[in-house]
Structure of DYW domain-containing protein:
Amino acid sequence: MLKRNVLPDNYTYPILVQACGSSREGEEIHTHVLKLGFGSDVYVLNTMINMYFVCGEMGNARKLFEEGAVLDSVSWNSILAGYVRMGDVEEATLIFKRMEEKNLISWNSMISGYMKCGSIEEARKLFDSMPERDVVSWSAMISGYAQHDRFVQTLELFNEMQRGEVRPDETTLVSVVSACAHLVALDQGKWTHAYITKNNFEINSVLGTTLIDMYMKCGCVENALEVFYGMKEMGVSSWNAIIVGLAMNGLVEESLEKFSEMSNHGVAPNEITFMGVLGACRHVGLVDEGRGYFNSMVQIYKVEPNVKHYGCMVDLLGRAGLLEEAEELIGTMPMAPDVATWGALLGACKKHGDTKMGERVGRRLIELQPDHDGFHVLLSNIYASKGRWEDVIEVRGIMRHQGVMKTPGCSLIEADGVVHEFLAGDTAHPLMEDIDRMLDEIAVRLKMHGYAPATNEVSLDIDEEEKETSLYRHSEKLAIAFGIISIKPPTPIRIMKNLRICEDCHAAAKAISKVFEREIVVRDRHRFHHFKHGSCSCKDYW
DNA sequence: CTAGGGTTAG
């Protein structure tokens, strides 16, 4: 357009801003605009400021702003929002303080600015001191909480919002549903879904995808599918949520079916789709199929595998016992393998008792990432399972020396609409006495049914009896005991854990599901375990 | 022309 000498106007500038990919292009447009005498038009000036932020030229934007003879409130908000978008909150704060006329947009920009840099309390202070709030203010706070894993606060603020006059919109609800998903707060999730339906909110592709994810993460496959089939438009993300969710719930065949259905609907898979597909294969050890999908990524779908896809393949091969092939695959990676890749191999070594490779990989990982707790723990557990206690003590010594803290196991469980949190070895819960009594009862009744704790997973202690007690205080066991007390059958006991479930807790949960005739659903870091009548949906392959 | 959104994860 510039070359053809067509005059720009109010409608062409936004297009120019969008199209402007480099600072050189930006300067070119700027010069042209000045030549045409548009420099004193405040609308054009504001567009130019925005354009410079789009091409990452904060300095030029600032210069225009400071030299601008005719600034209006949009100019001020543009420069403020620009700094917020670039993540320069300090500069944004200075602008905000200089502003004489702050409107809702200014306040809202500043809230998201604080949220973006993790100053959650600052954002809240600002929010509380606002003269008035609109739906964007509430959403900025609510989504900010959700993005910083403050899910309880997300729901609290949403509750508070409902007591006021401002009505939520689809954007607000996305964060709320997402918080429910993370907390595995199924009751609240279902309530929010009902609220959405009752108030005739449109279940658009984003909100629908979030609902699907929420139900899948709570183990409610049927509800997730219902949302899916009710959606008007399904983007690749919606398919991904379904494919990943089905796989996570152990419905591998159905997951792979959805993958082929997706192609029939003309939706092209992306990187995440293949994380789901490869993850599905990994869950049940479909090695040949996994290799096939992995090769098809480039050959058919033109999706380049990233480091996580390789990690997934290493895990698939490793878990299936093909340790050599897994290590060879790492050697062929076009990018540097990350710690997760080596971690997958280390996990496989642990599973298949390959102490030699495990020691090699484990030592290397500790050097690569000395502050990561998981690898120390894995290596020390590899030694522990072979009874090499001196090596265990050495690794624990390195951990202590490096100041590596073991991530505490944490389990969440919802009862009567309230989410309860248990940490490993926790004694803080108000019902602790009842829980302790239940833990004793579990121990006694399981022992009567011939269940013996797998104490080799506990590598620290010397005393067998003490090992047993510490195993009985894993966070998921505390949550199960609490669930037996607080949740009436036949409602399943649903638990979410931050780490992978350990061998002993897995065995115990199976036994409890039989002895206590309770259905237990545990979602660990990786996938679901549906315990029923003494067996698990993962068929002990995990 | 300026403010708020989800999906993967040893």
